[in-house]
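Fill-in record for YCII-related domain-containing protein.
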Amino acid sequence: MKYVLLYTPADDVLARAPLHFPAHNARIDAFHGRGDILMVGTFGDPVTQGSMAIFPTREAAEEFVAGDPFVLEGVVRSYEIREWNEVLTD
């Protein structure tokens, strides 16, 4: 079981994201460095489709969201954490 975090962007994401991206990216790097985030990225059109990240545990996903500048500063309108049953791995 993995956990997928889905972000829905705020209406003014293009104005807000650049201001908070350095802190958001530092958080991604920190979580990745300790193995608590496996993958992260945007969809084809991040302004309308948002982004997602994959975590090994629900606790890691919840911890990430709780301190993510994109959430705290309103870069994302909403988020959802979903359980994901990974079937095929390397």
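KEY FINDING: The first strand starts at residue 2 and ends at 9.
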